[in-house]
## 1
Amino acid sequence: MTLVSLGLPTTPPAIGAVPIDTPRSGPLVDRFGRVVRDLRVSVTDRCNLRCTYCMPEEGLDWLPTEQALTTAELVRVLRVAVDELGVETIRFTGGEPLLRRDLEELIAAVAALPSRPEIAMTTNGLGLTRRIDGLVAAGLDRINVSLDTVNPARFAEITRRDRLDDVIAGLAAARRAGLSRIKVNAVLPARDDLPRLPDLLRFCLEHGYELRVIEQMPLDADHRWNREAMVTADEILAVLRTEFTLLPDPRPRGSAPAATWLVDGHGSPDRPARVGVIASVTRPFCGDCDRARLTADGALRNCLFAQSETDLRTLLRSDLPERSLDAAIVDLWRTNAWMKEPGHGVNGPNFHQPTRPMSAIGG
């Protein structure tokens, strides 16, 4: 196996080996030296849109309420992640996180931790106008809003809902609430969407949002993802360059999933306009990944494409005493992180799409 393109060792430990050498102290690290600093937390698998590249029109069999982690259970796990394991950023996702009624309470609890992490959220923007002030007051620092097009007819086709105006209003409300760095996440479901992409970037530039265009990944519930049909990073950049001059971004990328460019002639000297592309398939960045994921039903996943996960819910609902419970969470989490694969494997001959779709894993 050659892993040079990922910046990883060329001879990884045998997959499936008993992790007897799992570190029991220090950073939350894997076998390749990657340190987990970013935790994506799915607070629900439910969504009020039906995007064609994510789920069927009729929706999915949602998680029963009693199987989802309670507020207290979530807060406990997040406290351990931050205080015991060094997590520095927590991003709340879904499904659609705004469908969780106690989201403000969760954010406030995380914001009150002694080692306060950065708190972010990814949302489709529906209902944001009603809740953004409360979310910011609770401690929300950053927001990403999913928006694939500003063409009303195409938006309705992709999402199967006529709600574009609500998303645009939600973005504006986030800016009024004082969030200074608002990102727009876009997926192009088909190559026919490419000619409209400059319009989306133009909209973001006009309103001060940062566009991130994401290659469609094989995480759809229908399992209809097709590599040949996927719009690639090269195609995305080629189309944007027909109308905009993109300059190299002098900032180091670090572990960020997006490669970014400055949009010449836009923004200001102290805040230049940027556009990013998240090329998870054609330009994988697994070698710098610092993320872990917690599903709404309490499963730890060390990769979006992981074929296994670690159940925390059963442990949380056991009768272990307080200190023993925290220690057990730490031990399980360290083992889960340690066994992370060197890469997501999407481009390998033995790749298998995870059984959980994106809406059930969390972005």
## 2
Amino acid sequence: MPRDTAGPDDVDGVVAAWRRERPDLDVAPLEVLSRVSRLARHLDIARRRAFAEGGLEPWEFDVLSALRRSGPPYQLTPGDLVRQTLVTSGTMTNRIDGLVRRGLVSRQAAPSDRRAVNVTLTDEGRRLVDDAMAELLEGERTLLTGLDAEEQGALAASLKRLLVGFEG
């Protein structure tokens, strides 16, 4: 079992209080999941900061990054974007409309089916998402500075095992 060398944090106080008040409960899950929850809040702050640098909202980054990850020609259908960003088709339509107005994506009829639409990342959209991604990774590296590469790998593997149970 790894030794805790980090010193106390706020979760230690929460866990100790629950153990004192409810000694009949096994509060061990709080030691992991309360820290995951707190780290998620710090990550959300870092992400919002990274996106704000480029004038992007988190939802804009989600759509633009899905297009960017798709590779050249950086094009997906609205249905593909819905699946990748886990929003409704109505929400995605509104998001695409906003990104078209900003000149970050364009819409074209699909060559194989004129009724279908493709959404394509523009040069400006690509520039913004690339800059935001670089800024995001810098912030995420800062969040992980307390762990060496081996510890980061072990943590990633453990979290993956947990997520696979939920996401299959």
## 3
Amino acid sequence: MLDYLFIPGTTHGKLLRRNLRIEAKLMLILCTHNVIPRRGDKMEIVLHCRFITALLKKYGAIGAEYKGSYKRFKPFDIQHLGSGWEYKDSERYHKLKTDGRRWRALKVDARPLSPGEADEPETSDE
């Protein structure tokens, strides 16, 4: 599993965020900015987090006096991933770049290519 999450050759010693593959790094930033801050959120309905909290209280992993915390959150926006990320898009692809690594994902609503039409080539800045 470590070889799937981390860049090959970086899983010895400490496991650092900068050594994550771009897909794992993207999932980590999504969780840290949108899932984890909502764990005690009473203003928005986040049922799975409230359910997990209730189970943890029931089995004594969290004390009954735990009230959670409130934290404002901003809905996930791929345009604003934080420092170190660069996002661009084209007619067919979402393009992410971080730490010199690049990732390109086909858009859900991308039009199919016509017969004989070449797909958009990757460039050195992608």
## 4
Amino acid sequence: MKLLIPGSLLTFCTIPGAWFMAPLNAILGRRPTMVISAILTIFGWLAVALMPGSIGILVGRAISGIAAGGISVSVNTYGIEMADPEVRGLMSIIINNGILAGQVVTMGLGYGLRYYGVALVNLFLPLMFLISQIWLPESPSFLVVKGREAQARKVLMHLRGSSANTDMEVKKLKDMNQKDLGKSLAWRELFSRQSLKSGVIVTTLFILMHFTGYLVVSSNASRIFANAGSSVDDGVAAIIICAVQLCAGVGAGFLIDRLGRKKSLMLSNAIMCIPLAILATYVGVVNTEGDEVQTYGWIPLACLMISQAGVAVGVNPVPYILSSEYFPTSIRSQASSICYTFGTLAGVAALQLYTPMLEGMTQTGLYAFYACVCALGILFAYFVVRETKGELVG
């Protein structure tokens, strides 16, 4: 069956993973959920390495997918709650860049090692993550909601310094979560007007993000460059694209914290829109005129380098940031898991629709469609997205 390939299986299993881990994140806390996710990741890589044949790979990828769904909820929630308001964007970018760096490392290992060798090397990363939990404190927001104020003050004192007014911060967190203090779960809050509105906004951002084509480009880079008539080797071009996106992400955190979420989204979509429109025009001219027009094979690479760099400025990280910042502590994990679910489904849909859209719209129409989605993203960010830069999220 076509969908039962390791990559797709992992992606699909992030959905039940997020839904299963979200209540645990709300009941047990952020640290225990990260510990469970790390253990599952280790077992996932062990299954790939030690179980012979395709069954072992599929089982391992399924376990890893469940773990990845749990990590997406717990780590992003933890990062948002632990960081000072002035550096929350940077914290989220570091998490996103960690994912990109992990992909690059795995691809690099795959050139020189067999699949089980890659799995054995990769299991050391979640093992290190698991060991690091010994020194990580629990989220003060979670502790306040659970009525453990003394522990929350102790954590805040460690994070902010001895001169910080931790009593004031604890009071603010209590005020923001007054009606949910001491409750294990607050499912009713998910259906409040504000939560539903926030959920629709974040979900729409995830859908727009995936239909800008950034994931399609990352997953089909070699095929795209070959079809676009690029004179650059398609394998080298694909590596360059990944490297550019990772480098752009390094400085994006400072930009998001300076400009804010709304302006970063608008800038990011604008950076993506222009080269995609140029690429659509270039491909259209080349395909129409053929050998009669002088072609510049470096143009597809340049356009996609700029477009993929623009992704890191806001289109990719901001939906993940807002999926935590837009919701109160009591429902942050559950609401984030719902947003991640729609985001995952949108990503799968964008990938599955790539070939039908390419055949029906041609390359010119497809790139023009992606450029129009970016333009729509600018308008959506300007008129709909609510700014959270510098705000205390409880």
